[in-house]
Amino acid sequence: MEGVLPIWNFRRNRSIIGKMEASAIKRPIRVRMAPSPTGSLHIGTARTALCNWLFARHVGGAFVVRIEDTDKERSEQRYENELIDGFLWLGLGWDEGPNPVGTAGDRGDLGPYRQSERTAIYKKYLEQLLADGSAYYCYCSKEDLETQRQGMIAAGLPPKYSGHCRHLEAPPAGKRPEVIRFKVPETKVEFHDLIRGKVVFDAALFGDLVIAKDLETPLYNFAVVVDDELMEISHVIRGEDHISNTPKQVLMQKALGFHEPIYAHIPLILNADRSKMSKRFNDVALANYRDRGYLPEALVNFLALLGWHPKGNKEVLSADELVAQFDLERMQQAGAVFNEEKLDWLNREHMKLLPIKDLMARVKPFFARAGVAVDDEALLEKIVTLQLSRAKTLGDFVAAGTFFFAMPAYEASLLAWKGAPLAEMKSSLEDARTALAAIPAEAFADRERLLGALDPLAAARQGRGPVFWPLRVALSGQSASPDPMEIMEVLGREESLRRIDAALKKLAATA
Ligand code: GLU
């Protein structure tokens, strides 16, 4: 598809076509992800990045990452690293950046853009606004502002900046400029949103906006307007929480003679109780999902389905399939509920789609992190294959698979089936050992053969419990695990008998 969006794609609100500048329609499609490095990479930020990336890839446009680090106090390099790592881990590569490939500090990639490196650019446009009278220095101190605010409340007016410094002829004696303000016209501001249709704000309620602390220190709403223009951003796709910034940005675009990008404010992500998913909670950090063993493929799939749905019924989709289908027309307006069970399901489906060697390679670091040495590839393959139907995450393979590699310590009492005397368990385990020892090593891979040896014992003891329970604990050291036949198929004859012997020793010691 061409890099220019055909106008008939705007099905949701055809009337906008006539109202949009022709130049806006004809501009090459370029989108940006503009995160602030002030905290961990939130799952919602990852989702906004994904929407931009999918949109760009779908139409053959460009995807740009811009680190919005104008807030010097709150921005931190480690958070920028986390953003970049997270985007790259999800596979959301960007198309350009300010620095040549291999530049120190840029990790051999193309960027990203950083607002902190663009101060001189913002300064030029601040000076332009000051020179043409669209912006002015404000000398009001915090106390002045508070007094003005109280005055407005007392007069029954909605509080906003009074405009005190708007008409000053000269700087007030003895005062230094506190900030730079943009003159907000008292008009209605209208813009068109691809998801929400026509959106109207009353700018008369805003008051004159602070757009910079000084010429060297622009604030978000201003820097974003300059960058979106200079980076030739055609579409601004961002979270709905930014919708009230848009009219402010539109007014500044007009004052600067800039293009107005096409906006799409995507619905917020909600908790199951429909409350807003907060940035504060650590469990919404993308890294948390990565560390628990969710695949990037599954997260991409899951995040794409938050508020958007594909045309057909097929929900398990690869990044390529999502790129082929993604559009903003089928993005819903209502908040999108984060359904963790669906994520688990998608993760399992994507794990099943991986070739076994690939899955093993992804599971291995999880064992390493848990301190379990995995040197037997054949054993790992058996374990991964066995657990695949149960595991929801890569971490689950470790939780459920560690005992195969290293027998955990356990109490003899765990061997007792429903409080049965340990002497009875000992005799049951001895019978099981004798029956199993009669099976040749090659036949341990045959579940039916193992079951055939054990079932007569179960019949003699009026049920499988008194036979299978102590055997399973002897093999796994755990109260919950796959059944004993499955474990023995993986461990093989020698190791299985060794573990049973260890359990018998334990029981002998308690007698
Ligand atoms: N820097 C803003 C943020 O992290 C987003 C800016 C935008 O998308 O316009 O919330």
Structural notes for this entry:
Helix content is 45%, strand content 11%. The protein has 511 residues and is an alpha/beta fold. The longest helix has 27 residues, at 484-510. The radius of gyration is 32 Å and the shape is elongated. The protein starts with 14 loop residues before the first helix and ends with a helix. Residues 1-24 and 101-108 have low confidence and may be disordered. It binds glutamic acid.
List the helices and strands and how they pair.
Layout: H1 15-19, H2 22-26, E1 30-33, H3 43-59, E2 62-67, H4 77-90, E3 113-114, H5 119-131, E4 135-138, H6 142-154, E5 179-182, E6 188-193, E7 197-202, E8 209-214, E9 217-218, H7 220-230, E10 235-239, H8 246-256, E11 262-266, E12 269-270, H9 286-292, H10 296-304, H11 319-325, E13 336-337, H12 340-353, H13 356-369, H14 377-387, H15 394-405, H16 422-437, H17 447-460, H18 465-476, H19 484-510
Parallel strand pairs: 1-2, 2-3, 10-11, 12-13
Antiparallel strand pairs: 4-5, 5-8, 6-7, 8-9
Helix pairs in contact: 3-11, 7-8, 10-12, 13-14, 13-15, 14-15, 16-17, 16-18, 16-19, 18-19
This protein binds glutamic acid.
Glutamic acid is lined by residues 34-36, 68, 224, 238, 242.
The count of β-strands is 13
Low-pLDDT parts are: 1-24, 101-108
Radius of gyration: 32 Å
- Side-by-side strand order of the widest sheet: 4-5-8-9
Distance between the termini: 77 Å
Structural class: alpha/beta
| Distinct ligand kinds | glutamic acid
Task: Summarize the amount of helix as a percent range.
Answer: 40-55%
- Taken as a percent bin, the fraction of beta residues is 5-15%
Give the overall average pLDDT: 91
Molecular shape: elongated
Largest sheet: 4 strands, antiparallel
How many helices? The count is 19
